[in-house]
Amino acid sequence: MSIATIRDVAAQARVSIKTVSRVINNVKTVKPHTRERVLRVIRKLDYHPSPSARGLSGSRSYLISLLYDVTCAYYATSVLTGVVETCRAAHYQVLMQPCDYTSPSLTEEVTRNLRQSRADGVIVTPPLSDMKTLKALLEEQNVPFVRIAPAEHADDRRSVYTDDRESCARMTEQLAGLGHTRIGFVIGNPDHAAVAHRFQGYRDGLRKCGLALDKKLIVQGYNSYDSGVECARKLLQVPVAKRPTAIFASNDEMAAGVLAVAHGLGLAIPEDLSVVGFDDVPLASQVWPALTTIRQPIPAMAAQAAELLLRQLRGEPYDRSGHVVESALMFRQSHGPSPERGMIARARNQRRATA
Q1: For residue 7, what are the CA distances in angstroms to 20, 22, 45, 152, 265?
Q2: Helix residue ranges, H only, 182-336
Q3: 96: exposed, middle or buried (C-beta count within 10 Å: 0-12, 13-18, 19+)?
Q4: Which of 7, 67, 109, 282 is the most buried (most CB within 10 A)?
Q5: Residue-wise burial string across 182-203, b where 16 or more C-beta atoms lie within 10 A, e elsewhere
């Protein structure tokens, strides 16, 4: 089968090539019935405009640059899933740009990549989305951009994020409602500023349930499995009376490390210890027992970020309702009643069975 060309579209739609180009470029002067006829033919012929050819016809390249940190491969893949579909529908292509957020030459590398790609706009993922130097660079070069999950939420027009703080408060309340009064918390990597909202949510949940904040139950992690293991040892290798009955980790990788240490110490999950995480990456369903966690809507945030960016590029008014995407609590087998409440329930069940 031959590949459809813009001439084929123009011929079947009975319009000029220039009109087809105007429809593709979303020029507002095209009459609605003409636009719909051209779009029907585009769908029928499965026509895909060439980004390079379109870029030559005007000042646009029809490329969106996706900046991501090289240490966050899974996150970048999830973002790409959400961005590609939205951009494809608008006839844009996505160019992934790996970055090292610790590199002293980061801004020079981004500048060079933007110059070479001629990208029309940029989507920035964490932890890059929290870098003030990168934000200043894009503003200085007048490059439209949208940031995913930045720590500060003042710039709604150019950022998309989830309700980390609120969802973590709800999860903490769930644990407290099951009788847990000693709830440990593993803080995420401080370089990922948005995860600070998760710790704030944990504190909010404790406060709402009337539980005091115990600094001995709080440890600093770095988002990795190994750091989860190290943090779990600090929390669990203490006398039973000082040990938490539940541990809330800022991401699933660290929660998996907590599970491993608990198994090694002979603790039953969730009878002796409840463990919960954040993100709902595939690992959360692969560990044993399956991890109770908070599903971060990464593809949905990415799709919304792409839509916000496309609105900028089309000069459309900003819709203030689109910058927050809600997360969801995913209840699985790694959490349950506190040991004390569980013992009471088991004793009650035994009495009923022998009655």
Answers
A1: 9, 14, 11, 48, 70
A2: 196-208, 225-236, 252-264, 283-286, 298-314
A3: middle
A4: 67
A5: bbbbbbbbebbbbbbbbbebbb
Strand 328-330 relative to strand 293-295, pairing: antiparallel
Q: In DSSP terms, which residues pair with 328 in a beta bridge? A: 295
Contact assessment for residue 280 and residue 88, using Cβ atoms and an 8 Å cutoff: no
What φ, ψ does residue 64 adopt, rounded to 5°? Answer: -110, 125
Q: How far apart are the first and last CA of the chain?
A: 77
- Compute the distance between CA of residue 321 and CA of residue 250 in angstroms, rounded to an integer: 27
In the structure encoding, which two tokens stand for residue 49, read together? Answer: 């405009």
Rounded to whole angstroms, the Cα distance separating 92 from 118 reads: 13
- Nearest-10 crossing angle of helices 32-45, 6-13: 130
Q: HSE, CB side, 13 Å, CA atoms: give it for residue 259.
A: 25
For residues 74 and 54, the answer to whether their CB atoms sit within 8 Å is no
**Residue listed under structure tokens 């959360």:** 284
Cα separation of 125 and 134, whole Å? 11
Measured between alpha carbons, how far is 192 from 325 in angstroms, rounded to an integer? 19
pLDDT tens over the chain, length 355 residues: 467 788 889 999 999 988 887 887 777 788 899 989 999 998 888 887 655 444 444 567 889 999 988 877 788 888 999 999 899 888 899 998 888 888 888 888 888 888 888 899 999 999 898 888 888 888 888 889 999 998 887 777 789 999 999 999 999 999 999 999 999 999 999 888 778 899 999 999 999 999 999 999 999 999 999 999 999 999 999 999 999 999 999 999 999 999 999 999 999 999 999 999 999 999 999 999 999 999 999 999 999 999 999 988 888 776 666 688 899 999 999 999 999 875 555 555 565 555 5
188 near 251, Cβ under 8 Å? yes
State whether residue 330 is helix, strand or coil. Answer: strand
Tell me the C-alpha distance between 153 and 133, whole Å: 17
CB neighbourhood size of 48 (10 A): 12
The residue type at 139 = E
Residue with tokens 């009878």: 271
Looking at the DSSP assignment, which residues form a beta bridge with residue 139?
none
